[in-house]
UniProtKB/TrEMBL annotation:
One Pfam entry name: DUF1264
Name this polypeptide is given: Oil body-associated protein 2B
Family: Belongs to the OBAP family.
Domain of life (superkingdom): Eukaryota
Amino acid sequence: MGAQLVQALKPVKQMKQHACSFALYSHDPGRQLEVHHFVSRLNQDVLQCGVYDSDKPSARLIGVEYIVSDAIFETLPPDEQRLWHSHAYEVKAGLWTDVGVPEALQRSEMAGLAKTYGKFWCTWQVDRGDALPLGAPALMVSPQAVDPGRARADLVARRDERFRVDSSAGGLKAARVEMEEPEWINPNADYWRVHGKGFAVDVVPAEMKRHAPFP
C-alpha cells in the first residue's frame, strides 16, 4: 500500500489495452492456451505485451509477446524470422479481440494488427499444472487455418461464452471478412506450416562469458 502512494509505476500504467486470444506450443501444437495480453505501445511499429492466463486479479504472468509491424519484420535476419508468427488469420477469424470493446471501435486496431508479426515466449506452462515457472521457456505460435494449428473449438466456445463474444462465421468473422489483408505473409514466419517442425529450447551448460549464438 505504501508503494502505491509513492511509486509512479510508469511502465505498468502504459498498458492501455486488454486483448484475448489463443496460443499453441511450437513443439506441441496440441497443447493450447487461452491467453490474455495486456498491451503497451513503444511506438507505431512495436508493441510489448505481458501475457496472463486470465484477466482475474489472481492471474498468473505466463510470458511475454513482442509484436512488430511488417516493415520491421522484413528487416530481421531469416534465422530470427523463423521464431515469429503472423497475426492475419488470428485476427480475421475473430480469435483475437479486445475484451469488452465493440467491434466498430476496435476495427481500425484489428486491421493494423492483421499486418503484424509476434514473438511469444511462454515461461509458465500452467496447462500442465505447474505451480511455478519451471524449465526453459517455450516458443508459442498463433492459430492458423490448417491442422495442427487450428484453435480448439472447445477453448474458443468457452472464451466466447465467458466474454459474450461471437467469433463464429456469423459474428466477428463476418464483421472482418472485408478487412484488408496483408499483401503477403513472409514464409519465414509460421515456420511449422512449411517445414512441419517447431522449436524447443534445451538448457545446456556453457562456458562462462561465452557469446550467445544468434538467434
